[in-house]
Amino acid sequence: MLSAVKGLADYDIDASLLILGSGPLQGELEELRSALGLEDRVHFGGFVSDPGPFYRAAGLFVLSSAWEGFGNVIVESLAAGTPVVSVDCQSGPAEILENGRYGRLVPVGDDMALARAIAESLTASEDPGVLRARAADFSVEKIAREYLEVLVS
Question: pTM for this one?
């Protein structure tokens, strides 16, 4: 992700990255940020109990995980009407984004493809209503109805 932010310069994109959460690798990420000269563009926000306001304020949400379970963060971003770029890791992003229909997917580990997808997304127009409608496909109410239909039939 940090390499992708560095690569945005190739596309004349002046964007900043806010990383929410904390963990044992934060020190390494801060060192990499410094090594890449991104101190003014990459910020660490720490743990937040409600990321909703951040999704709504963001111009883009990027998931750069090498692996993911379901990817609730993608659905939460879509529910806020925020466009998504995600790596196409196993178990979720391609299904949620319907193979790129509702957000851009890039191969795992391809920093330049991630930078390109971020640049394209930041300069594209997305319909927030379409993104919110896709997120609704994963609502508790809809999923519960689908489970009941399977169990009752």
Answer: 0.91
Q: What angle do CA 148, 149, 151 make, to 5 degrees?
A: 60
**CB burial class (10 A; 0-12, 13-18, 19+) of residue 39?**
exposed
* pLDDT score recorded for residue 106: 98
* 3 state SS of 18: strand
Residues forming beta bridges with residue 21, ordered by sequence position: 46
pLDDT tens, position by position, 11-32: 999 999 999 999 999 999 999 9
| Total domains in the fold of the chain | 1
Domain that holds residue 41: 2-152
Task: Return the SS3 of 89.
Answer: coil
Backbone φ and ψ of 52, nearest 5°: -50, -50
| Average model confidence (pLDDT) across the chain | 94
Neighbours of 115 (CB within 10 A): 23
In which band, very low, low, confident or very high, does the pLDDT at 73 lie, cut at 50, 70 and 90?
A: very high
The answer to whether the beta carbons of residues 4 and 120 sit under 8 Å apart is no
98 touches 115 (CB < 8 A): no
| CATH code of the domain covering residue 136 | 3.40.50.2000
Nearest-angstrom CA–CA distance, 57 and 50: 13
